[in-house]
């Protein structure tokens, strides 16, 4: 089987044709990789070795493809050969990486491709929407909604730091669907895009934190009791969270959910903190994350099908094939895509 590998940590990526074809277990499916997205975590795994269980390592954890084998009865209750699927796979685990011809997905954690999305669009949603959902529903303790009966708008606010990122954009969309007004931070070049995503107020993340907090506080009611949530999609928002929470009245519920799961962030300023651990997806050590995401998947899929959640903006690199995958990995690493998701066609359907 063909794919992309790094022989060891910090090794150059190369195309290989001698990968072992993985075999799905009872509650798994084997998927033909059609489109894969490239994420910063792919380069972090290659360069730092984080989450990588063994070498050589195949990058890719975010894709859309077609089911070619169903592992057993459990998986067959959800999927059939020929179904189009998408989502996030196990990170750093042999057989699950998406930059290869075929990869395994855990059936309970797989998103059936929404009928209104193309395979290319579907490849943009897995990591971003699942991370945002973990931050909002688990980290901020907001109940999972009924997609067909969403809450009415309310005069309550949430903050999304890193609003131009894929996680940030899905965070903005989810908060808006839950009825909240949203303050988002990003670079000035992304202001319009973040506003179009749904943010009511946009902050320049490059100005001093105290100024960002002051701008956020200016939109609250006089009591400052109507802001409760901060989703830190940029993994660097602890200073903002501390400064903001310190300005809120005593007794106001406050939640800080962050993609920074390596710095040991704990509760602060009377608030509750949650470190999002998408890297545990599918693993035995991630039972809590897996059970949680299994409940989220049907809700998220329904929101996409209803057109209430929209896929991420993306740029497609190359003309397909594994040389194009190498090109896409380098393109994402260069930062040339800006806030857009980088995707590449691995092979024809």
TrEMBL record:
Q: Does the keyword Oxidoreductase apply?
A: yes
Q: Which residues form the Enoyl reductase (ER) domain?
A: 14-343
Organism name: Aspergillus granulosus
Family, per entry: Belongs to the zinc-containing alcohol dehydrogenase family.
UniProtKB keywords: Oxidoreductase
Say which domain of life the source belongs to. Answer: Eukaryota
Q: Which InterPro entries match?
A: ADH-like_N (IPR013154), ER (IPR020843), GroES-like_sf (IPR011032), NAD(P)-bd_dom_sf (IPR036291), Trans-enoyl_RdTase-like (IPR047122)
For this protein, the record's Pfam families field holds: ADH_N
Q: What is this protein called?
A: Chaperonin 10-like protein
């Amino acid at each position: 089987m063909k794919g992309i590998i790094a022989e060891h940590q910090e090794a150059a990526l190369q195309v290989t044709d001698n990968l072992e074809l993985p075999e799905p277990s009872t509650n798994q499916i084997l998927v033909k990789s059609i489109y894969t997205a490239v994420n910063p975590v792919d380069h972090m795994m290659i360069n730092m070795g984080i989450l990588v269980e063994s070498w050589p390592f195949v990058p890719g954890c975010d894709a859309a493809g077609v089911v070619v084998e169903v592992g057993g009865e459990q998986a067959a209750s959800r999927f059939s050969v020929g179904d189009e699927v998408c989502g996030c796979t196990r990170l750093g685990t042999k057989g699950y990486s998406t930059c290869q011809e075929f990869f395994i997905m855990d059936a309970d954690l797989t998103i059936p491709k929404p009928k209104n999305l193309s395979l290319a669009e579907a490849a943009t949603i897995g990591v971003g929407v699942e991370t945002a959902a973990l931050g909002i529903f688990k980290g901020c303790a907001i109940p999972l909604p009924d997609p067909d009966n969403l809450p009415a708008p309310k005069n309550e606010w949430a903050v999304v730091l890193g609003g131009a990122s894929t996680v940030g954009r899905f965070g903005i969309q989810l908060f808006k669907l839950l009825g909240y007004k949203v303050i988002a931070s990003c670079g000035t070049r992304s202001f319009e895009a973040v506003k179009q995503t749904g943010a009511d107020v946009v902050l320049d993340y490059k100005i001093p934190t105290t100024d960002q907090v002051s701008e956020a506080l200016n939109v609250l009611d006089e009591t400052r009791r109507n802001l409760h949530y901060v989703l830190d999609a940029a993994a660097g928002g602890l200073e903002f969270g501390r400064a903001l929470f310190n300005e809120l009245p005593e007794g106001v519920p406050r939640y800080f959910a962050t993609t920074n799961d390596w710095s040991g962030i704990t509760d602060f300023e009377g608030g509750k903190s949650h470190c999002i651990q998408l890297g545990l997806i599918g693993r035995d050590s991630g039972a809590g994350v897996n059970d949680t995401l299994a409940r989220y998947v049907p809700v998220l899929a329904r929101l996409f099908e209803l057109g209430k959640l929209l896929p991420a903006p993306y740029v497609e690199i190359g003309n397909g094939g594994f040389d194009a995958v190498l090109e896409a990995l380098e393109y994402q690493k260069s930062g040339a895509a800006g806030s857009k998701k980088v995707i590449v066609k691995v092979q024809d359907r």
